[in-house]
Amino acid sequence: LEMGDQLVRSLIRMMAQEYEYDGDDTKFVDEADSGVWSAEAVFEDSRTWKLCKAALCAAFVPQLVHCKAGCFINDTNEQVYCHGSSCNNNYRPMVNTFSARGGLADDWLVYSDSMKLTKVSIMESTAVSAPYVLLFARKVNMTPGASNGKHVDFDGWRGLLAGGEAGARILERLRHNLAEAIQVLLDNQSATMLRADLVDALLGAFEDPRLALLP
Q1: For residues 152 and 140, what is the distance between their CA atoms, to the nearest angstrom?
Q2: pLDDT tens-place string over residues 67-96
Q3: Residue 152 in contact with residue 207, Cβ under 8 Å?
Q4: Dist CA 45 CA 95 (whole Å)
Q5: 30: number of Cβ within 10 Å
Q6: What pLDDT is stored for residue 149 in this prediction?
């Protein structure tokens, strides 16, 4: 969290100095303590943690691996491993039992970097469910010729969308609205916060079973 805090500060400082960005969040870089990056602040509110995972996906896609049958598989179907120092070294997909909708399995890892010696190891990683991956993938397409719009291609992966045509419409609408809202904020140099209604829609989508990927 401290590394993330410093990275955000340095990126905003660069935007202000090199690209004349003058949004409200520029004053954040000079505050000694932002007050929002402690573990307690992140994890005590499920909304905050979901949005943190969303930000990580937005930043690091397509650096993803799929957790399958106790193994981590990348987009070339190669088995990779979490670094021995990672808290996810022995991770197995889990469902959030406190979710209002019953929960979706966090069966993807988004990671910061990887290295290859005798095997490929991924470094810092966070477990997320399929809706995070689909909403923030660089490119999403329905597979040509797929019936009912259920098959979806995204960043080198192919999956079966649980919600069929309904899920495809939800995914397409949210991705469009998100891209449009972010572009407006960037154009206005005010990328501090998305509209409340869009944030609520995203939070709901993260637990929407129609955006799950079937095994």
Answers
A1: 7
A2: 877 788 888 888 888 887 777 877 776 655
A3: no
A4: 18
A5: 8
A6: 56
In degrees and rounded to multiples of 5, residue 160 shows phi and psi of -110, 115
Q: Which phi-psi region, left, alpha or beta, contains residue 76 (left: φ > 0; alpha: ψ -120 to 50)?
A: alpha
| CA-to-CA dists, residue 13 to 26, 107, 127, 142, 183, angstroms | 7, 35, 29, 39, 20
Global pTM value: 0.81
Two structure tokens written together for 126? 């966070």
Task: Summarize pLDDT for 135-163 with one digit per residue, the tens.
Answer: 999 999 987 666 655 789 999 898 889 88
Alpha helices, DSSP H only, in the chain? 2-19, 39-43, 46-60, 130-136, 164-187, 196-205
d(CA 205, CA 212): 10
Which residue(s) pair with 159 in the sheet? 152
Closest CA to 212 of 169, 159, 157: 159
CB-CB contact of 165 with 142 (8 Å)? no
The answer, yes or no, to whether the previous bond of 215 is cis (omega within 30 of 0) is: no
Residue 171's closest CA among 143, 199, 212, 200?
A: 212
